[in-house]
Amino acid sequence: MLKCRDIGQLLYDYVEGVLDPPIRQQLEQHLADCPGCIAFVNTYRQTITLSKELREEEIPQELQQKLQSFIKEKLHEPGFWSRLRTRLTG
Ligand SMILES: [Zn+2]
Question: What global pTM score does this model have?
């Protein structure tokens, strides 16, 4: 079973749709029981969608890529995920 702290590491691949199906299934099982992680996944997904929807004249592609790799890096930083989850869920 995946723990909350594992979710952050998998989230980028999950949202990109490139996560291995067995792991994806475990992640979805975790989400089914964990409102805190669901809240984060939704926020994360919105952030990614938003950064992808921004048109090039609004934000240069280079910056979009930087933003996305920044988010990805952050998710792999120890403690970031749990800090963010705590902030979102109280
Ligand atoms: Zn969780």
Answer: 0.65
Å from CA of 60 to ligand 1 middle:
34
Protein residues placing their CB within 5 Å of the ion ligand 1: 4, 34, 37
Q: Ligand 1 centre and the CA of 30: distance in Å?
A: 6
Cα–Cα distance for residue pair 50/20, rounded to 1 Å? 25
| 3-class DSSP state of 30 | helix
What is the C-alpha separation between 27 and 60, in angstroms, rounded?
33
Distance of CA 28 to the CA centre of its chain: 13
Which has the higher per-residue pLDDT, 21 or 13? 21
Residue 27 clears pLDDT 90, i.e. is over it: yes
Average pLDDT over residues 59-76: 79
